[in-house]
Amino acid sequence: MADTPNEPEADAPDAHDDEHARGRDVRALVRAHGLTAWEQSEVALREALSQHLTVAFLGSASSGKDSAIRTLFGIDFGDISPIPGSTVRLRVAPLDPEGQVLLVNAPGFGDIRPEIDELSRRALDTLDIVVYVVNAEGGATIDEKRDLDLVRSRGRPVLVCLNKIDLIRPHERESFVVATLQQLGVDRKDAAVCAFDPLPQLSEEPIGIGDVIGWIHHQLHAAGKELLFAKHLRNKAAACEPIIQVAARHASVAGAIPIPGADLAAVTAIQVKLIRDIAEVFAVPVDREVALFIIGEVLSGSMRGFMRWGINALKAAGWIPGTQIAEAAILGLSAMVAGGTTFGVGKAAVRFFQSDRKLDGDALRTVFDAAAWDYKRRRESGGP
């Protein structure tokens, strides 16, 4: 089956009327379920934003901690004074006026005096995530292994970033990564290969940032702190990527098909929350009318693209609109449609807020269809 739709044939007037009718049906269903979903998402959003989060960046002076923080959060730690009373250059910076999100920058925790001030003590005692940065060019040292073991003994999730990978010859990188992680005793799933500030002639953009953001998002998800982290990231589109992926996975197992004649409630609730989360990351005000506009527009106007494929594929598998879903083939297809539409809604929402909320329905549908087809292709090839 083709991944993308064929060129549409000229439709008869009654076909256009039928498509407009389906569009009205979708908007009505989205609105009916969306009003309840909006109230539910309000509670979840307030809860997520009321928490506290502390992220520590550790590593030697040459590892690139400052570059990592600057790339991820847009903060220059060179302007932040060390904490008084510390034998190392420990720095703590709040990312918001209330001090809900703290960043810690230090070589390590082994030599920090007990007399450090209250802000620093709170940061050390309430760590949520540790990012340990290693200079790939120099390789791992005994001191780094000892300090990393001390950090992990505290029971906090630790991501090891092998930074400056751009300075390692391409054909030597994989063997270097394997050897270094073995020296440090770190599993590959808890490591990221990156270059926070690569040489311009080798890469115009930081390398591996998506992996770093994705790992931290995954670790914070269980505690409901991932949104608090994402909203302070410098690259808003990258910050939204794991949020969209998680929402698409949830939608794919929600047991609903987001098309007329089926139960739209579960998927609509996921998509409404997704749009609110994305708006929070972009720090853009959003009301329920904007959220329902985005969902209603992309679903109602896409009957000639991904949504048409979904309807036809489900009907070919034996699904009858308005009936219960039981067959495994139909369940698999419905998961694909629900996940793809949610992924597409998320991507359309990102573009909408990037445009300062100026995208119209046609532009939103173009983004939606491209993203939904991409989701389908990646799922069929075994990708995330």
Can you offer a commentary on this structure?
- This protein is of the alpha/beta class and 384 residues long.
- It folds into two domains: 13-49 and 235-380, no CATH class; 53-223, 3-Layer(aba) Sandwich (Rossmann fold), CATH 3.40.50.300.
- 53% of the residues lie in helices and 8% in strands.
- The chain contains 13 helices and six strands.
- It has helices spanning 13-49, 65-73, 118-125, 142-153, 173-184, 209-221, 226-230, 236-252, 265-282, 288-300, 306-316, 328-354, 361-380, and strands at 53-58, 91-94, 101-106, 129-135, 158-163, 191-193.
- It has a six-stranded mixed β-sheet, sandwiched between helices.
- A hairpin with a 6-residue loop joins strand 2 (91-94) and strand 3 (101-106).
- Helix 1 crosses helix 9, helix 8 (236-252) runs antiparallel to helix 9 and helix 9 (265-282) packs across helix 10.
- The two termini are 20 Å apart.
- 43% of the residues are buried.
- Residues 1-17 and 83-87 have low confidence and may be disordered.
What's the helix count? 13
Give the strand order, joined by hyphens, for the main sheet: 2-3-1-4-5-6
Low-confidence stretches: 1-17, 83-87
Helix percent band: 40-55%
In angstroms, what is the radius of gyration? 24 Å
H/E element string? HEHEEHEHEHEHHHHHHHH
**What's the N-to-C terminus distance?**
20 Å
Mind summarizing the main beta sheet?
6 strands, mixed
Structural class: alpha/beta
Number of strands: 6
Average pLDDT rating: 82
Strand content: 5-15%
User: Which assembly state applies to the chains in this document?
Assistant: single chain
Shape: globular
Total tally of structural domains: 2
